[in-house]
Amino acid sequence: MPQLNPSPWLFIMISSWLTYTLIIQPKILTFIAPNPPSNKAPLTIKSPTPWTWPWT
């Protein structure tokens, strides 16, 4: 069965992952985020008033 032979695709997979982790990923991680996260206080939500059903 040809799909069990790792010879054609194993080298391609390992070389692509090495390229990604050693070359591309450090370049991507040096970018600065355009909108850095801020330390904003979370909004407090008031509990809603119970619904008054006309038939109860």
Automatic annotation (TrEMBL):
Highest rank taxon of the organism: Eukaryota
A Pfam family hit: ATP-synt_8
UniProt protein name: ATP synthase complex subunit 8
GO biological process, one term: proton motive force-driven ATP synthesis
Mode of membrane association: Single-pass membrane protein
Keywords annotated in UniProt: ATP synthesis, CF(0), Hydrogen ion transport, Ion transport, Membrane, Mitochondrion, Transmembrane, Transmembrane helix, Transport
Compartments where found: Mitochondrion membrane
InterPro entries found in the cross-reference section: ATP8_metazoa (IPR001421), ATPase_protein_8 (IPR050635)
Family: Belongs to the ATPase protein 8 family.
Molecular function GO labels: proton transmembrane transporter activity
GO cellular component: mitochondrial membrane; proton-transporting ATP synthase complex
TM spans (from-to): 6-24
